[in-house]
């Protein structure tokens, strides 16, 4: 069946427009930001002590690529040589310490361990080892 109410009145009015104030606020903020950045980077006025440099200034920097490469190679070679010398000295010192320990053991200065040794640790624990 059809609806007997033929009066089509909407009880809800159309929504009111907000006026776009949020977009105006965003655009205003962007304009202020651009002006502040321009003021910071463009500078506002003359440079102090501008009269110190008179005439043209020419700065030339020249470097030889081969000289730099040779310097790097020399530095690397010196570092390698220094490391090798230090390693040889450490090896000689370790060998001398080993020989000294062996000599002391052979001379009887170091007593050999007994068959059963008790090692005390922190607390009340004891560890027994046999050889």
UniProtKB/TrEMBL annotation:
Residues 86-131 are annotated as: Disordered. Keywords: Membrane, Transmembrane, Transmembrane helix. It comes from the Bacteria. Residues 92-131 have a biased composition (Acidic residues). The chain crosses the membrane at residues 20-41. This is Uncharacterized protein.
């Amino acid at each position: 069946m059809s609806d007997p109410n033929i009066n089509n009145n909407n009880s809800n009015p159309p929504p009111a427009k907000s006026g776009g104030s949020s977009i105006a606020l965003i655009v205003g903020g962007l304009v202020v930001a651009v002006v502040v950045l321009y003021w910071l980077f463009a500078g506002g006025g003359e440079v102090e002590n501008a009269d110190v440099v008179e005439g043209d200034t020419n700065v030339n920097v020249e470097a030889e690529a081969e000289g730099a490469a040779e310097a790097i190679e020399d530095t690397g070679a010196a570092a390698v040589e220094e490391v090798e010398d230090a390693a040889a000295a450490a090896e000689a010192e370790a060998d001398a310490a080993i020989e000294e320990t062996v000599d002391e053991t052979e001379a009887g200065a170091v007593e050999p361990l007994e068959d059963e040794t008790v090692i005390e640790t922190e607390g009340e624990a004891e560890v027994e080892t046999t050889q």
